[in-house]
Every structure is written in structure tokens, then in C-alpha cells.
Amino acid sequence: MREDTDRSVQGRLQVVGPDSVAEGVAGWARETVASLAEVAAGTVPASVVVVHEATLRAHGEWTGFPAWLRRFDARANAVILAHEGLSVAELVECFRAGLADALPSSSPPAQWDAALGRVGRRLALQAEARAVKVDAAATQRLLQDGRRRLRHEAAAETAALLQAQADLEAANRRLGDHMAQVSLLYKFGRELSLASNWDDTLREILAHLAEFVGAAGGALVLRAAPGGAYAPRQTYRWQEQSWDKVLLRITRQIDAGVASSLLAPGIFQVGPQEDETTGGRITALPLEHQGIRLGMLLLLFGDPDERRQRSAANLPFLQMVQVVVSEEVASAQMLDRLRDIGAFNTRVLETVSSAIWVCAQGHTIFVNRAARTLLGLDAGPVCEDAAAALAVGRGRLLDRPLTGGAEIDDLPELFLDGALSVAGRQAPLFAGLQRRKRPFRGEGLVRDLRGRAIPVRVQTAPMAGRGRDERWLLVILEDLREVKRAEAARRRAERAEALVAMSATLAHEIRNPLMGLSAQAELLADSLPVDDSRRDRIDLITSEVERINHTIADMLQFVRPCDLRREAVDPVRLARVSLDLARPRAETRGVSLRVLADAPVEINADSAKLKQVLLNLVLNAVDAAPTGGTVTVRLSGDRSLAVPDPTRGSLQTVPAVAIAVEDDGAGFAGIEPERLFEPFFTTKTTGTGLGLAYSRKVVDAHGGEIRAERDGAITRMLVLLPREAVAGKTLAGEAT
After folding, report:
1. Which residues make Cβ contacts (< 8 Å) with residue 500, sequence separation at least 6?
2. Domain boundary residue, one of 339, 374, 389
3. Averaged confidence pLDDT in the chain
4. How far is it, in rounded angstroms, from Cα 420 to Cα 455?
5. Are strands 48-52 and 78-83 parallel, antiparallel or unpaired?
6. Which residues, other chains included, contact 63 with Cβ-Cβ below 8 Å and sequence gap of 6+?
7. How many Å apart are CA 53 and CA 79, to the nearest integer?
8. Which CATH number characterizes residue 229's domain?
9. CA-to-CA distance for 190 and 197, rounded, in angstroms?
10. What single DSSP character describes residue 239?
11. In angstroms, rounded to a whole number, what is the distance separating the alpha carbons of residues 71 and 65?
12. Does residue 168 lie in a domain region?
């Protein structure tokens, strides 16, 4: 507080009185004056005056002191009275006159410091009040000037705001028009991109476009093919008697560059003025993509003036429509070409005989018709739809399936289900094949839905997937069953050819001595008495000779050419006859016989040889069946058979009859089924082993198939015979 007081009053203090009073104001700069007149004279600028009561009384100034205070206070100074003990009334009068403070003359310096501090603060407040009054007056003048200026500015800004509002409303209208144009363009592009029926979509777009630009009608003209003639693809409220002439005239004018009233690059007014139908009323928007003209978008107006006015007003919009429709038409035509290519590729993939897989991470993402057939599925007709041709296995791509919503079937996975095994390759098979930089070729086995192992030729190659770093594996399998059968048939033919020569030699070298032995044995028997025990030994020799002769006869029957005498044959009747012939042996073994047949179907076959085949199969089944067992002959006429087509050198499918001879015996466990049909191979303790070999020879001569199957506890000999006569295999044919 002392420092504040110093700053406010130091150097501005006068003392009216003796030095003793001045000394009481300790530590302050001061100047001693003789009387109040000197202070009032202003010879020394004073802020605080300390007046001594006794001095004023001595100079006779005490009585006029209150009046002097009023005058002195008006000058914004402060007066402190040092008195010798005034009465309260006198002090009150002095304070009313403007006295700032009063202290006894004998007050210590601390009280004088406090009094000076109070006075200093009061003077500061008074100075601030005077400054505030000055500032308030200046502020009032500024406010008045501001009000006058604001009134003028408000009037000007009101006019500007009204103009801005009018401009904003106009801009909003323009923006609304532009937004409507953008919305319509977006709608056009979206509808054209997602259209499932382009004609309906184009008709709707033409209607919206004509209504938006105020046209009376519209037409979209496209080329039927690249370089072909123009023709209306879709029209809206525009009927022409001869579109060919109109389009020819428009095309010539645009190509010649003589179209009148050029609105903008690529937008023309076309049609001669003298044409009463369309003269000057058409705005043509050529649709071009990469320098190729795809067609034209035509707008028909009521008259030339309306066409000119509305086309000019919508010029930017028409240019954007021209670009959007051009791009969408080009995209649609490209999509059509891609669909054609895709359909062609699909037909190729679905038609080839090789089974094709495409796998990603071991999952199947594509298979063709031959692959489904190889695995035992009904492939159905050839599919020409690229999307529908995609078939997905159980482990399809989890995040990016390629089916487009196609139904997932029970197709087994080549790698995940272990359906494929490759010779010389160990698990994990997929990873090993995909890591190869070069294509793999080898042989393997595929297990179909019935569990059968099918020999295949395997070819694999890595290929790029859909993603940047995605790798797929292409797998091509070729069914080797026909090749294996042909190879087995070739080996059989080679053995049969050798057997022909051997049989002829054996028949010549063995039969003549046997006949001599038989004749000598009969002569020896005739020379012995009837009750001679040696006749039994001679009878044994004779029976063995007969057995050997029977074996030679069977062998000769097998190697002779199988000449067929075809006729209409009822296979059901042949089956019943065969069962009747085998019934005595079946009853001896306690085996029951039965025939199960569909509606009777005739076939063209050799009745005698076919009956011999059926009898042989039934007798083998009776011998294999256990006591109390059953032998069943099943006949079905709704089967098909693949046979060679001599005119085309390929296979053809023909209607066939299936004859299955079944028994519930032990079967042929541990024996390859094909070995059963080898000559001289038998599982019985008696017999020559030529029965099944001869049966296959007869079935092959008919163009059919015979095979042995084991289905659970049932052993089945299945014979497939074509209904009509086809070229079969002969012994000579097999040999070649």
C-alpha cells in the first residue's frame, strides 16, 4: 500500500505550517509553504495539502478555511488537517466543506502514512471517475455516429440481402434442375447395368428422357451386328412408315457432317426442312465407343423452334446422356460377346470326354459333366449355361463361392475326401501337385460314390486364380477302364490265338490215341467173363478216356469261331428253360431257383448259344450257393449299353437287356473278377475252367458285356445284351 501511495502522491505534497508538522509526514517529499494563499496561487502544483490548524489561526485564515476548502476541492486536490484538538462540530463542518482527512498534529508517521494512502486512493478513484466521464462522453458521441452509420449500412445491406435471396433462389432452382439431371442419369446407368430385360428398361428410359426434355417421342437405334445396318431397338411414341429411309437419311447427314444447327460436338439437328414429317424436329445423339459408332439416340420434338429451345436448355444433360448410354450399350454388347464365349467354352468343357476339376486350397470349385459321370453321378443333358455349369463340392470357397447361389450337391472332393490317389505320390497330394512348376502326368485311381476304384490317367497343372496371389490347380482325369479292358481283351486274344493252334495240335495228337485206347479197352472187356473183377478197371479206363475226350470237345468248342444264328428271342423264356434244366442239380443240393423279370422284351440273339450261357451261369451259381440258399435270375429291359459305332469310329449308346444271375454263396473273395473269365481258371475241384470263358465269347459275339460283381452277401454275374443286332467281337477280331 505504501508503494501505491508513493506512486500516487509522492512529489506532489505541500505542507502549510511549521517544520514540526512537516517532520511528522515522515519519508515523503514535501514542500513547505507559508499560507493558503500561496497554495491557491498555484505556484506549486499540489495534489495533497497538509494544513496546520494553529498556523491558519495565526494568520487569521481559520474562519475562511471551509470556504477555501470548497474552492480548492473543485480543483480535484485533497486537504488533510493537522489540528490541535478541534471539536466534533468543527470537524464535521470541515469535512462537509471538502476536507479529505484530519489527524492530530502529534500523530506518529505511521498514521500519516495511512492517511496519505487513503487520500491517494481517493484521488486515484476521482481521476478514474473523471476519465470515465470523459470516455462516456466520447463513447456517446461514437454511438451516435455508429447509429447513423448503421442506419445507412442496414438500408444498403437490406437491398443486398434481397438481391442475394433472389440470386440464391435462382441458384437453388438451377441446382434442383442439375440434381434432377444427375438423378436421372444415375437411374439410367443403374437400370441399364442391372437390367434383366433390356427392352423393357430401354422403353422406360426413353419415356423418362422424353418427358424430362419435353420431347414428343424417342428412339434408340442400334446396329444388329458390327458393321451391320441400323434398326430401332426400342421406340417411345414414335411411329414411322419406313424406318429404313429415315435412318439412312440421318446416317448420311451425320456421316457427311452437313447436319444443320450444330448444338455441340456430337449432337445434331437432322432432317431437311422440306420434310413434312420430321424436318428439323429431330435431335440426334450418335452413340460411339472407342471410335466405333454403336447406334443413335433420337429425340423427336413438336416443331423446330421447340427442338432448338429445349435442346439448348438441356445441352449438358444431353451430352451426359449420350456418354452414359454409349458406355452402357458398349458394355451390354461386350457382355453379350463374353456370354457367347462363355457359353461356347462351357459347351466345350461339358462335351469333352476328359473329366476336368479346378481346385483351390484342395476345395473343388469347378467340375464338368464328364467328371460327375466318372464319380457315379447322373450328369444329365449337356449344359450350355456357363453359370449353371459350375458345380461345387462340399469344401467350396468359403468367402467367394463361384456358384452364384447354385445348389451344392454330394460331389466328393478329390483331395479333401481322398477320392483321388496317384501312383508314386504321397499325402498331402494337393500341396505336392500345386508346388510343381511343370505339369504332372501319371496314373492313379478315383473312388466313385459306390466305392469302386476306377483307373485314370492324371494330368495336373497350376493356374492363376481370381485374386492377385491366388493359385488354383487344374486336374484332368481320363478314364482308363476302356483302355484296360481293351488291353485285357488284347491279352485274351493273344492267349486265344495261341490256344487255337495248341488246341488243333492237341486234338490231333491226343484224340487218335484216345480212340485207340478206348477201342482196345472195349475189346478187352468183351473177352473177360461178366463177373470178372477186372472189368471194373477197364470201365474206369473207358470213363477217363471219355472225360478227356469231353475236355477236348469243350476246348475245340471254345476256339472255334462263334457263328450266330440270330432270331427274335424272349430272354425270360430262356431263363425259365435254363432253370428247368438246372433244377435236378439244385434240388440235390437243396437250393431254390426263381426268376424276377420286368415286362418281357425281345432281343435279337442266338437262342441256342444264349441258353447255353444262361445254363452255365445258373449251374455255377447252384454249385456256389450253400445248402438252403437261393439262386435268382433277374431280367430288366430298361438298361443301356455303350457299343462301338463302325460308321464314326466311336462309341454309341443302345437299348439293352440286363440278365443277372445271383447267388448267396461265399463268392470269389481275394480273386480278381476278370480272372474268372480266363480259360482253364476255375475255383471248383472239377471242371475244365472253360465255361465262363466260353460264356464271355458268346456275349462278346452278341456285342454285349459280362462281368462278375460282389454286392454285400450276393454274388452276381451280370450279362448286358443289346436289343438289336450290333457288331460283336469274334475270336479273330480279338486276336487283331
Report:
1. 559, 731
2. 339
3. 75
4. 10
5. parallel
6. none
7. 12
8. 3.30.450.40
9. 13
10. -
11. 10
12. no
Based on the fold, state whether residues 445 and 489 are members of the same structural domain.
no
Using pLDDT thresholds of 50, 70 and 90, give the confidence band for residue 222: confident
HSE of 302, CA atoms in CB hemisphere, 13 A: 7
Measured between alpha carbons, how far is 424 from 437 in angstroms, rounded to an integer? 18
Q: 555 and 581 in one domain?
A: no
Residue 60 CA to residue 22 CA, distance in Å, equals 21
Question: What angle (nearest 5°) sits at the alpha carbon of residue 523, between those of residues 518 and 524?
Answer: 95
Q: Work out the average pLDDT over 15-22.
A: 60
Same domain, 331 and 473: no
Residues 475 and 491 in one domain: no
**Cα dihedral 699, 703, 707, 711 sign:** negative
Report the sign of the C-alpha dihedral through residues 620, 626, 630, 635, in that order. negative
Place of cell 497350376: 462
Per this entry, what is the length of the chain? 736
DSSP class of residue 687 equals S
Average pLDDT, integer, range 35-63: 71
**CATH code, domain with 704:** 3.30.565.10
Of 131, 153, 187, which marks where a domain is finished? 131
Cβ burial of 227 (10 Å; 0-12, 13-18, 19+) is exposed
**What are the φ and ψ backbone dihedral angles of 86, each rounded to 5 degrees?**
-75, 160
Other CB atoms within 10 Å distance of the CB of residue 207: 14
Query: Distance (Å, rounded) from C-alpha 299 to C-alpha 209?
Result: 9
CATH code, domain carrying 428: 3.30.450.20
Q: How is residue 469 written as a grid cell?
A: 496371389
Cα–Cα distance measured from residue 650 to residue 653, given in angstroms and rounded to the nearest whole number: 10
Cα 132 from Cα 382, distance rounded (Å): 105
Range of the domain at 517: 485-559
Helix (H) or strand (E) segment spanning residue 72: helix 65-73
b/e 128-148 (16+ beta carbons within 10 angstroms → b):
eeeeeeeeeeeeeeeeeeeee
The three cell numbers of residue 231 are 434398326
Nearest residue to 637 (alpha-carbon basis) of 575, 720, 699: 720
The pLDDT of residue 457 is above 80: yes
Report how far residue 316's alpha carbon sits from residue 305's, in angstroms, rounded to the nearest whole number. Answer: 19
Strands 267-270 and 260-264, sheet pairing: antiparallel
**In a domain? residue 419:** yes
Decide if 245 contacts 234 (C-beta within 8 A).
no
Report yes or no on 540 lying in a domain.
yes
State which amino acid sits at residue 552.
I
**What pTM, to 2 d.p., does this model score?**
0.42
**17 vs 14: CA distance, rounded Å:** 10
202, 220 in Cβ contact below 8 A? yes
Same domain, 331 and 362: no
Q: Looking at the structure, do residues 204 and 319 belong to the same domain, yes or no?
A: yes
For the residues of 398-428, what is the DSSP string, one character each?
SSS-SSSSPPP--PPPTTTS--EEETT-PSS
Evaluate whether 541 touches 521 at the Cβ level (below 8 Å).
yes
Over residues 664-673, the pLDDT tens digits come to 888 877 777 7
Q: Are residues 308 and 333 both part of a single domain?
A: yes
For residues 516 and 374, state if they share a domain: no
> Is residue 391 situated within a structural domain?
yes
- 382 to 343, 350, 378, 596, 672: CA distances (angstroms): 11, 6, 11, 35, 36
Q: How far is CA 661 from the centre of its chain?
A: 52
The predicted-structure confidence for 603-613, as pLDDT tens digits, reads as follows 888 888 888 88
Task: Tell me the per-residue pLDDT of 156-174, one tens digit each, with 9 for 90 and over.
Answer: 888 888 888 888 888 777 7
d(CA 367, CA 393): 9
Q: Which residue has the cell 445434331?
A: 268
